[in-house]
Amino acid sequence: MRVVLYTSVLVAAIRSDRGAAKVLVNLILISKVTLLLNYLVACEYRAVGLRRDHLSASKGSQGEIARLIQKLEDVAEPVEIFKSYRPLSPDPNDDLVLDLAINGRADAIVTNNIRHLREPAARFHIAVLDARMALGTIKSS
User: Fold this and answer.
1) CA distances (Å), origin 69, targets 25, 27, 28
2) CA 20 to 30 Å from 124, out of 44, 59, 82, 89?
């Protein structure tokens, strides 16, 4: 399964050792799920994931979280944005993720914001799932 991981799902995995987001990130790290990534989304992962409140909630150090993000970057499939379809959403961050998913031929966008992404992603036959739904899809395939 080829996925784009919305930053909020990564943050959920950072903040808790339990839950579907953490399981999904672990599946990405062992290459059971293909993470699609580009420079701008990787920068967002670092900017948001290394915020003080997330570090505090994770009980991890800045170095540990930075290494996790680096490992995700190392296993990810890099995607170049050849064509942008903006605007698809009122939120520019959503458009960034949609461009990545479309150009990377994603099977799904994994997000906590299904409502805002479902309609524009459906135009390109890309599923929009939360982490729990993504795990269910992976297990059934």
Assistant:
1) 10, 14, 11
2) 44
Q: Chain-centre distance of CA 127, in angstroms?
A: 13
Q: pTM for the full model? A: 0.95
Contact yes or no for 112/19 (Cβ under 8 A): no
The pair of structure tokens assigned to 87 is 């605007």
Note the pLDDT tens digit of each residue in 21-57: 999 999 999 999 999 999 999 999 999 999 999 999 9
DSSP 59: T
Only one residue has tokens 């290494």, namely 67
Residue 90: is the preceding peptide bond cis (ω within 30°)?
no
For residue 12, the domain's CATH number is: 3.40.50.1010
Domain residue limits at 124: 2-140
Q: What angle do CA 83, 88, 93 make, to 5 degrees?
A: 85
Per-residue pLDDT tens over the stretch 79-92? 999 999 889 988 88
- How many domains would you assign to the chain? 1
Q: What are phi and psi of 34, to 5 degrees?
A: -95, 120
